[in-house]
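Worked Example 4.2. Consider the chain below.
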Amino acid sequence: MGGRGTLVSPAGLPSCTTRVVLVRHGRSEFNVEGRVQGGGRLDPIGRAQVTALAARLQHEPLGVIYASPTVRTLQTARPIARRHGLPIRRSRLLSDINFGIFSNMAATEARARDPGLWQQWWASPHAVRFPGGESLGDLRQRMLRFFDEARTWGGHTVLAVTHDSPIRVAACIALGLDDADHQKWVADTASVTIVELSPGRARLVQPYADVQHLRDIDAA
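Applying the procedure from the previous section yields the following structure tokens:
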């Protein structure tokens, strides 16, 4: 990952600290259709959200942009990348939790197929592994690996365009919480969450999942 030495450290940010701006993708067709995530493109509201998001982030001193390799995250990342003149680094570490056999399925159909598993997902999410997919423990390990990679950009600001569950897990890591707390957190579409990383430590910068930049967008 060459070229790090050419980056300019943001004013006031200690060289040992990395600022990670976690962004959830804009609203997708699957969000509207009530599908278990796995695919889907941005809908018109999602595209409007991304325009507002790019304007919100235009003055962030971004040094590098990462994105989950899905259509909806790349659609979200591209306008931001163009404004900053940066390439997009695709990272599977930022992929959504793998829902396995339920991916792309209507949520109502998924619940009907295995109501016990989905009840457990809401009550004890840390105890669930989706058939053919992942557990929150797997996702946490991916996010820890991503944080380790982000730390290699010490002193710079990293944008990470990702999904709801990875952002929830990142917040739990930063707050020292267990994955049992997963359902207490929601990252709305096109929201911004900031975590500051230093060696061996992560700190959540409030507010969590900020959407002030979306206040003029009618998502009805």
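The longest strand covers residues 201-210. The two ends are 42 Å apart (CA to CA). Compare this with Example 4.1 before moving on.
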